Amino acid sequence: MLTLHHADELEPLLRSLAGVLAPPLSDPFTPHVVAVPSAGTADAVMAALGARLGSTGRGDGIVANVNFLFPGQFVARALGAATTDDDPWSIERLTWTVLQILEAQPSLLPWATDGGAGAGASAGRDPWALARRIADLFDQYASQRPALITSWGLGEDTDGTFLQDGQLAPLDAGHLWQARLWREVRKHIDTPSPPERLPHYLEQMRLGAIQPNLPERVSVFGFGSLSFTFLSLLRSLAQVREVHVFLRHPSRVAWASSVNRLAGAVQVRVNLDVAAHVNHPLLVSWGRPALEARALTAGMPDVVERAVDTATSAPRSLLGHLQHGIRHDVAPAPVGGLALADHSLQVHACHGDLRQLEVLRDALGHAFVADPTLQAHDVLVLCPDLERFAPLVESVLGRGSLPVPARVGDRSLTTEDSLADVLQAALQLVEGRATLTQVLSLAQSEPVRTRFGWEADHIGQLANWCTELGTRWGLLAEHRVQWGIPSDIAGGTWRAMSERLLAGAALSAPVDRAVLGNVVPFDDMGSDDVALAGTMADFLARLVWLHEQVGTPRPIAEWVDTLHAVVDHFCAVPKDEHWRIAALHLVLDEIRITATGPNGTSAVPLGIADVKAVLANHLADRPGRLRLRSGAVTVTSLIPLRGVPARVV
Q1: Distance (Å, rounded) from C-alpha 251 to C-alpha 274?
Q2: Which of 70, 446, 451, 626 is the most buried (most CB within 10 A)?
Q3: For the ranges 144-158, 250-264, 272-286, which has the lowest average pLDDT?
Q4: Is the dihedral of CA 117, 123, 127, 133 positive or negative?
Q5: pTM confidence score
Q6: 62 phi and psi, to 5 degrees?
Q7: Residue 223 phi/psi, 5° resolution?
Q8: DSSP secondary structure string for all residues of 524-589
């Protein structure tokens, strides 16, 4: 049975979820399973359940033996052995397949030109990046327009939408290349795509041929919308398991007044305006996904709907009036009787990233002063471009007359672990000009200093040497040729600096002038500087080695070997943190695994730009932990904590 619980706030849904989880399963050692859209939702749900499950009302509750799964994990468990980790249609593996197809048949692209014999995907500037965009497009089609993929598999060129007579609309001529390329990918993979195989799997599940790897009762919590594919899976699963779906919908009135009842069918969706009956403009714009979810679920005979009551009171603030209008689907009207000191909804116009954070700091500082009961962990800051603002958050918010403690909540491994930063910075450095700022920034990072035994004052000495020796940019003279500097001019390069330092270290005592070959030794060196000069020369020699490695396009397997070596050459951590290096090596191994298909690892030669994109993609797929209840303001991107309540947002 599928039970659909819906409410316009998360709090009443949490009460219902606690009621579903409270009764034990038939096997008390079997974990409960709750599917959630993000890690932030899982953290918030776990914290809230801890105040309810096993609690006597004194904050002594406990949450144990509950597994929180993301949608992809939940689907895999629901399909049992039908879905495996090495699915060739996963977006990572699909990218490499598209890359191989384009390398072999570049004419499949409408903008491809005749590059002569052997001109394939690698003839383009960033072939992997192009393949990734196409694979992402195919993956979105499979999720949002399954009828399109199914028709392409049958050899029909349609766009996945339906005409008034119920027939599939023909594909625009400008998009025909996508259907042809997809068919070549399907032929190469030789395995049905998810939209092609899902109906068979669901039928097998209903017949009992596929046993879901799930307990007898499962919950789906915190979603604001449901795709047709996911809903179809849940309805089939509900025939063999007890399924509870907890759906957030911004307006109970709009939910009840929905005139569209698709009953789980998507065919006629193109002919519907799901917002036609809605009065509030924010529901029409921002609430459209929730309105579509309601239209899709309405009228399903195999679903039991339960509206969860929400405690409401008369609005007394501007924000309260806005929320009341959305909840009751009332068109906005002038609001009177508000206090002059009402600051419940504020808009600040700022110029530049730094100024935005400064105004945010001041606004939050005043909020803490105005309300002594407000704690830092009660505040949630949502940022649409977190990676852009993350480096500034803690430093800007933590200074001034009203400092605010803040922690970035969901940063990827790229920004969470300095090891990943070193790897990416080293690749960026040797691909570019190797400027003074780039090299010293890399040298002062924690893993590099640990690797070469440097302290903070050593970095200061290196900077002083750069100033005295006139070091500016370029690893060596040959490195600067591409920027128009003759190869016989080595002054100002890192190689020239290294040679002068080593020559100076070799002298037994300072002299007025000595020349060893074409090198003038740097003789202003103390006895403590000799070791530093040696490790600096070693560091620079490894950068020269890496520069030589990245100059020629190579298959991804060779690049992975190089990336492993870069980690070992430039990074070290304390013994009790060796797991950090092991985790980064694991990410690199996963790159090789995803690039391996039925015919072996991809042999398409890639340049450094594509390799950096591959690396960044895999690092971004490993999010860091959310730090809720850390005693600081949580700063996060829009998705992880979407719909999670906070006292100040």
Answers
A1: 14
A2: 626
A3: 250-264
A4: negative
A5: 0.72
A6: -150, 140
A7: -80, 140
A8: ---TTHHHHHHHHHHHHHHHHHHHHHTTS-B-HHHHHHHHHHHHHHH----GGGHHHHHHHHHHHH
